[in-house]
């Protein structure tokens, strides 16, 4: 949702958290609940390296397996955007979660390293196909005046599940890795059953699938062009938005890679890093829905730019020579930027796309975030080795460029 008119669509005013949830259709609630279940059972990415090392594989090989999982995840997001136009949301979610359950259980029976790599890539892909499908359904069944708030709920479900999963996984590993893999497989299968029972049948006909991606991207000025992801790339305004997502995600993920190095370099205990991550998680979980109640009324371009710039300012502030209190203050700044911009950035592709190409627009934006999340940490660590604390100033500059791309790519008042 975006625009000056985002406060109202057809006379309906942007609502608060409780009213938005109460009015959400059952399939939307099912998708959000499914995301929670899926993320609560998302142990594989956290424990894959430890599992392989415990099984006798060298650390380097285990790292390659994790990289294969990440590459598969990006491919799965793109595949999900394509599948929505071919077999529909329900079939995409049910088939991907069923495949994910089978592949996850397969790790327990893998007899060689190549098989482990294939399973890692396969689970990475299968676990992410649902994302553009679920986002497309949420967008389709939610009015524009509710969309940003609903996507904030979508993110909250993801964050709660992601936060709790390592703790649950650690408890399961204390008993056995077999229990861990079976639990993740059961969670994925549970999401498949939930989707099969509660999501509407929506398989598109051949004509609809052929038309997907050929219509105008609403409000961006893109003209009808080639189908599929070529239509996304032909939309030059949206490509600028994708570049903004790429820059934002590359900067944002530095808290996972470069920040712990910076904390250690200053002679602080690693506990301090844990506190900073906890501060971010607490702000996102407790404050995002409250902040979104106000931000959902802002034009999408303003919310996106403000969020990106705040993240850039917060990270750039890490370059200052201050102690723990200063590091916490900087973390608060970029965490607030995250909750200001992220729900709108998640929802915007559904507004920019024509309805029949919505899945591909959502898939492209999620895939671009995945690329930035994969490339950003490696680039950040390399830059840290060369530049030291100056890397945080570079993060601020990259965030400013990402904000500029958003300004150029997102219209001030897109047509509806």
What does this structure look like?
The chain has 416 residues and is mostly helical. The chain has a two-stranded antiparallel ribbon with strand order 1-2. The termini are close together.
Please sum up the structure shown.
By secondary structure, the chain is mainly alpha-helical. Helices cover 77% and strands 1% of the residues.
- Spans with pLDDT under 50 lasting ≥5 residues? 1-12, 205-226
Biggest sheet statistics: 2 strands, antiparallel
Summed over residues and divided by their number, the pLDDT gives a mean of 83
Distance between the termini: 10 Å
Helix content: over 70%
Give the overall shape, derived from the CA principal axes: globular
The number of helical elements comes to: 18
In terms of DSSP E residues, the strand content is: under 5%
Radius of gyration: 21 Å
The strand order across the widest sheet is 1-2
Count of distinct strands: 2
SSE order, one letter for each helix or strand: EEHHHHHHHHHHHHHHHHHH
Indicate the topology.
Elements: E1 8-9, E2 12-13, H1 17-23, H2 26-40, H3 44-54, H4 59-87, H5 89-106, H6 113-126, H7 130-141, H8 144-173, H9 177-198, H10 206-211, H11 229-234, H12 236-252, H13 254-265, H14 270-295, H15 300-316, H16 324-352, H17 358-387, H18 390-409
Antiparallel strand pairs: 1-2
Helix pairs in contact: 2-7, 2-8, 2-9, 3-4, 4-5, 4-6, 4-7, 4-17, 5-6, 5-7, 5-9, 7-17, 8-14, 8-16, 12-17, 12-18, 13-14, 13-17, 14-16, 15-16, 15-18, 16-17
């Amino acid at each position: 949702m975006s625009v000056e008119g985002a406060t109202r669509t057809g006379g309906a005013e942007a609502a608060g958290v409780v009213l938005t949830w109460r009015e959400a259709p059952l399939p939307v609630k099912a998708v959000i609940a499914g995301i929670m279940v899926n993320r609560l059972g998302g142990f594989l990415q956290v424990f894959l390296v430890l599992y392989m090392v415990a099984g006798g594989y060298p650390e380097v090989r285990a790292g390659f397996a994790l990289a294969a999982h990440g590459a598969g995840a990006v491919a799965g997001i793109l595949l999900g955007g394509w599948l929505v136009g071919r077999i529909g949301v329900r079939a995409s979610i049910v088939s991907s979660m069923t495949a994910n359950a089978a592949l996850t259980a397969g790790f327990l029976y893998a007899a060689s390293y190549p098989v482990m790599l294939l399973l890692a890539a396969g689970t990475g892909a299968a676990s992410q196909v649902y994302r553009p499908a679920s986002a497309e359904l949420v967008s389709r069944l939610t009015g524009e005046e509710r969309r940003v708030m609903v996507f904030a709920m979508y993110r909250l479900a993801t964050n709660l599940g992601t936060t709790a999963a390592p703790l649950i996984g650690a408890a399961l590993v204390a008993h056995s890795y077999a229990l861990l893999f079976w639990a993740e497989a059961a969670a994925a299968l549970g999401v498949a059953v939930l989707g099969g029972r509660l999501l509407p049948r929506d398989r598109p006909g051949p004509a609809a699938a052929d038309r997907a991606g050929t219509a105008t991207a609403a409000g961006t000025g893109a003209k009808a062009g080639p189908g599929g992801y070529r239509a996304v790339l032909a939309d030059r305004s949206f490509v600028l938005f994708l570049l903004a997502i790429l820059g934002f995600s590359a900067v944002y993920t530095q808290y996972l890679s470069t920040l712990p190095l910076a904390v250690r370099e200053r002679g602080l205990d690693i506990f301090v890093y844990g506190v900073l991550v906890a501060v971010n998680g607490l702000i996102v979980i407790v404050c995002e829905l409250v902040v979104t109640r106000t931000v959902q009324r802002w034009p999408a371009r303003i919310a996106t730019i403000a969020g990106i710039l705040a993240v850039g300012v917060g990270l750039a502030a890490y370059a200052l020579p201050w102690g723990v209190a200063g590091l916490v203050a900087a973390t608060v700044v970029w965490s607030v930027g995250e909750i200001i911009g992220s729900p709108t950035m998640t929802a915007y592709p559904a507004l920019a796309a024509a309805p029949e190409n919505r899945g591909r627009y959502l898939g492209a934006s999620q895939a671009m975030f995945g690329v930035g999340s994969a490339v950003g940490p490696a680039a950040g660590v390399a830059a840290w080795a060369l530049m030291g604390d100056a890397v945080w100033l570079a993060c601020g500059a990259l965030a400013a460029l990402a904000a500029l791309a958003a300004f150029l790519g997102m219209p001030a008042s897109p047509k509806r």
